Amino acid sequence: NDDRFPLALWEVWVCTQLGVPIPDLIGPRRQCPCNAFQIDLFGDHLQTCQAKSAATQVHDWEVYRLGVILGSAGHRVKIHKITPAQGKERGDLEIRDYVVLQKPQDGTGRLPPPRTLIMDFTLTHTRFGRSQLHSLGQLTHSRRGDGAPEPDGALRESARTKIRHYRQLYINRPDPIAFMPLAVDTSGRIYDDFSRLLFLHAHREASALANELQEESEQFRFLRAACYANIKGSVGLILAKASTMRISIGINGRSICHLGH
Asked: Cα(192)–Cα(256) distance, rounded to whole angstroms?
């Protein structure tokens, strides 16, 4: 059951959110399998380390779970054999005919055909965990003016990087494809376009359940709000478990299938 949150994972998640040492990491410092850093008490290095495939395992699990959510309104979501941007480079999820364009084609007055949407998922950490230039646990972004923390800095930078890398390549195809970064961070923040996509999907989910309810009616708005709340809760649980599993896999070396996911 993917909705389970075992006590061991819950303990790690609570500690990371409160900023207190993780019990399993208290004691003599251990060398990380990457052999470049020691594992700190707060899990910042484990959140960013690429060794032992923890990041890859968790990433693939997240993509699968998001695919289930985005397929709830009848859309066919692909997480394998994604249309490439160039060479072997491609996003993580693909939904055919998902983007409905509202601007008529020039000279015809007709709406263009729907476009496929490709998304690339990334989970970023807001603190340095494997930098030789910054202190372990230091926030990665701060305002230039006064040095105050910028909580969304890592999230926005990650999304901009994905957009620069993929968007134009997909748009320039003979059959233009829309691209969106699904950028999130380990504190639970999500990129604003991703949030809008979840609301749009809640609207489509509600429309599929509404029978003869008019979209302008109060009953439909209540139904849409319930769908949106359910989707937000599901995505929040995915992000909480994902950030925790990156630490737990690094601590005990067990694969994701043994963490009670």
From this structure: 29
